[in-house]
Amino acid sequence: MNTKYLRYKLxxxxxxxxxxxxxxxxxxxxxNYPTTILLQTVTACNLPCTHxxxxxxxxxxxxxxxxxxxxxxxxxxxxxxxKAVKHAEYMNFSSFEALLNKHLFQMMEAVLAINPKMKFPxxxxxxxxxxxxxSKLKKMPITEINISLDGLKKExxxxxxxxxxxxxxxxxxxxxxKESMIDKVAVTFVAHKQNISELPDYVxxxxxxxxxxxxxxxxxxxxxxHKGRYLYSPAGNAYAENIFKEAxxxxxxxxxxxxxxxxxxxxxxxTQPEVLFINYNGDVAPCDYLAVSTPxxxxxxxxxxxxxxxxxxxxxxxxAIYRSKRADEFRKMHRANTLPPECSHCIDGYGxxxxxxxxxx
Length: 361
Known about the structure:
single chain; alpha/beta; 2 domains; 5-stranded mixed β-sheet; 33% helix
């Protein structure tokens, strides 16, 4: 078990949340129930960003298939995972853009019929966050709306995220404010060499929008196309760390919080295998990357990881799959700061992505 990480989480948990955290921990680590489910109802995106691995599906990722799940298939699949749904606390409907699924809100209602206490964290690039969709989201138990905003300047954002409209992102923030949902909004900033200098002013800009939480990720490189754009290195990055320090000062001045990745790779393990990830075809994997043959570029070396499939919920009991020896051993390796071979080139296992970010407030 990663005792350093556990101590960090312990000392950064508000006293008011301790009971709920202990209860969740008991359910997850002792009773071995997944507390978060990610059901991939959308394996697609409305933006062709070159840094996202979904745009390698059918090319470098030969077994990657784009799919938007229909309501009939969802209903059958939901029945197969009902035992897990009853005990889970959070459910995501896609690691991509869930709003592409026209049945999304009907799917949410179906999940709530099984578990009325379920909560829905939400990811979006904001292009489909129309007033109508925001109004529908407001009626659901949404815990957070995490919106991608990878820079301060319009030209920076649009140069990095292919096809995005910066003005639509700002319009979405405005509409979320009108619906009194801005308090649920967080932003994610994918840091790279072309945008890192904007981060301190970005903090102040986000604060002006009444948004209090910022997540910073490093740029993950898959095929090597973006080799040389990422900031982390074996020797670290003093320039980026100094910018982080200035950003933290502004965060504290503004009464916000920011989550920052490391700049020096250190094997920390990854938290993704704790989630019950279910692909559109029923396959259960440690994460969306390992559901297919994903290439990872790590300091110039590209490794294509073979899929890690624990089982399929159409053929086996969902909890039996999650509690299987293979799944349990995979999770325990990450908890013990040991990376399975399939994860050796993924930066999330080295504290450089989102799993083990540092909180500053």
